[in-house]
Amino acid sequence: MCTTLAANDDTAMIEVLQIACSEMPEVIKTMQCALEDVVEDGRLEAGVAIVSRTPRRRGGAAAAS
Description:
The chain is mainly alpha-helical. It has a domain at about 20-55. It has helices at about 1-5, 10-15, 25-40, 60-65. The chain is flat. The termini are far apart. The relative contact order is 0.11.
C-alpha cells in the first residue's frame, strides 16, 4: 500500500483497493468523510490517521439506504 501511495499512480491504487469503476463515486464520498473526521479530530496534525473501518455516512440518498 505504501509503495502504491508513493508511486502516485491512480490505476495501481484502484487495483490495490479492488474498487470497480461503478463504485468510485461512493468510495470518494466515503474517503472524503473519513478524512474530514480525521481532520476534525486533530489526528492529522498529530501525525496519526486512524480511520474507522465503518465510516459514518452523511446526508444524501446513500444515507437513506
